[in-house]
User: What shape does this take?
Amino acid sequence: MNKIKIMINGIPGNMAVNLAKHTLADDRFDLISQSLTGPEITKDEHLIDSIPIRLIHPDVREQAITEIKEKEGSFISVDYTHPSAVNDNAEFYAKHGLPFVMGTTGGNRKRLEDTVCSSSIPAVIAPNMAKQIVGFQAMIEYAANKFPDLFKGYSLEIIESHQKGKADTSGTAKAMAEYFNNLGVPFSKEDIKKERDPDVQKNVWGIPEKYLEGHGWHTYSLLSNDRTVSFEFRHNVNGRDVYAQGTLDAVSYLDIKVKEGEKGKVYSMIDVLKGVTTAGQTQKPSFLKGYRSRSPLF
Amino acid sequence: MNKIKIMINGIPGNMAVNLAKHTLADDRFDLISQSLTGPEITKDEHLIDSIPIRLIHPDVREQAITEIKEKEGSFISVDYTHPSAVNDNAEFYAKHGLPFVMGTTGGNRKRLEDTVCSSSIPAVIAPNMAKQIVGFQAMIEYAANKFPDLFKGYSLEIIESHQKGKADTSGTAKAMAEYFNNLGVPFSKEDIKKERDPDVQKNVWGIPEKYLEGHGWHTYSLLSNDRTVSFEFRHNVNGRDVYAQGTLDAVSYLDIKVKEGEKGKVYSMIDVLKGVTTAGQTQKPSFLKGYRSRSPLF
Assistant: This one.
């Protein structure tokens, strides 16, 4: 089975580096040892598990990508760069015929989608690459559509904790607040309680010290107005490994779509979830095998 | 608006009595002051909020029901009796053309359904009348169908607590275990952890003393194999009020179906959930109004 070549853009950023490590450890993939990087990065190389990755600065990327395409043939690009670069990068990928997985949040999402739709490439665009969380959101969305007002008369509390550096409220928590509104619960996104204090995270929440710098914990608590019935939903992520795993599944999914000749199409993680399942269950057992034990890290 | 007449069978059983209290307190309904009861009950009357309910023993029920039908006209029967009586009672309701809501568990469920399908009445049959729990189960079932293997590589723990008298494992927990199997998690129903010790329930779980004799608490915990991602779902019910509320919504739903002329049809709580929603949102605001503040107890 041919390995899928991946170019990961955004090194030396945390998420891009973590993904590169997972890619190196996963025998489904070959990592291209070059990465588009931002104008603020001054060095030309970054070591990942002692493998040197050449960092391509914006001013030389046109020339560099032509050489990479000549050398590598077809590959999938993954973007974990910066919100300010989202649209420009997407246009760059489209112009050069590079199918991509966009893991970077922010930018103009409508324009991002339009860029792909009017291009000759397919892309996976997903603000959250954690498949299980995406699946959980899909469940709640299903209930909101199918049983609006299911939780009418209930009160809601949403609390979330993320690393100190994260200034804004969790996007997942905000999306969930909207679903709960549709389920009959009045709740304003401003009422989501954010925890950013490492002391409280460690001592009150019990978040392990090594993950204080990278975690996303969410709890949604519903209480009936007579206080006899309560529901609680939690999803707690430590570190960034689950996002890397989901990204690699998105790459595998996109690779299939490229080989099927799809063009100008945007896929979501929901598509990936369904695709992974189908692949694993009926057609491509080797894909599922890769999915099961993807990395010696686990 | 005409009130819906209800005959509640199974008094003086806990659930039937609780439902009768809710019915008396809800101005959508009129309670018929007679109740089919079991052969083991020796008294002829039971007081509910100082209202005497005549208890009809099995040997006189044929005669009694004919008189009740003559006096009351059309009404909805609700069955909260005993697992051993489920099929016999359903055949009794069918024979006398009495649309019914079956809240009693056990019996031969296939035969129960067949009884309705070959009759001239519609019925709501639901082993769990708590609408929010039914909605939650529907969500998980949706995910299991749509994203099988979503939680592949995760381990699962299910713990539940019920009143000391409940010998068997929670039926809801067992149904959920199956959904999680379909989501890729190997788990045997025998591994569900049951708590039936009131001391542990009170001191470890924190279940309020007044609910030790009637509660259903469930927690499902998922952990990824690399231990970096966890999910937790809980639904905790104290007392029996939520089941009474759901039962009365089922009665309202069935009353609409009777008036629409439906015959020989079995409805589930999922149908009721959708029906309540539809009624509340588009066609019958008065129904939702009743749903909102159904009882001075809350």
User: Anything to note?
Assistant: The radius of gyration of chain B is 20 Å. Residues 241-259 of chain B form the longest helix (19 residues). Chain B is about 40% helix and 20% strand.
